[in-house]
């Protein structure tokens, strides 16, 4: 079990940098130090995100969070390859606010949907730590970026 301040968390961004920023702020407020990989403004955001997953798996991050994954027919094989790289490296992957998830649900540990209006939503930082440390957690989680 890793302490919060020693966890290596990578967040692969989405096209919505405002939402990404809220997630990063929430994790940092929870004493996490995530690395942010931007995909906004790139020619192919999904391809850039896939490469980010491969890079962070190679660096042996403790957790990879992918924001806004859109695993569709055109890119499903590439997503499967990138996620399999993380799986083989032993790095758990969380899909944050996914647009479309991969068909093989063994390729990711959990999905998290941000809903700051739900009073029973789990703080994003706590949910990330639970997955990174392989603590018991739901497969689908409602999370909040609001810090208390």
Automatic annotation (TrEMBL):
Gene3D superfamilies: 3.40.50.2300
SUPFAM superfamilies in UniProt: Periplasmic binding protein-like I
Cited InterPro entries: Peripla_BP_I
The protein's name in its UniProt record: Sugar ABC transporter substrate-binding protein
Protein's organism: Bifidobacterium pseudocatenulatum
């Amino acid at each position: 079990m890793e302490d919060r301040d020693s966890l290596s968390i990578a967040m692969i961004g989405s096209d919505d940098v405002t939402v990404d920023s809220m997630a990063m702020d929430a994790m940092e407020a929870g004493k996490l130090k995530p690395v942010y990989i931007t995909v906004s403004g790139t020619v192919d955001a999904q391809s850039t995100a896939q490469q980010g997953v491969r890079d962070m798996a190679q660096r042996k991050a403790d957790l990879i969070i992918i924001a806004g994954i859109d695993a569709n027919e055109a890119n499903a094989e590439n997503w499967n390859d990138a996620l399999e790289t993380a799986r083989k490296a032993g790095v758990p992957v969380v899909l944050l606010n996914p647009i479309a998830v991969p068909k093989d649900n063994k390729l990711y540990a959990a999905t998290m949907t941000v809903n700051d209006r739900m009073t029973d939503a789990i703080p994003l930082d706590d949910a990330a730590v639970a997955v990174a440390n392989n603590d018991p957690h739901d497969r689908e989680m409602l999370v909040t970026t609001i810090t208390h």
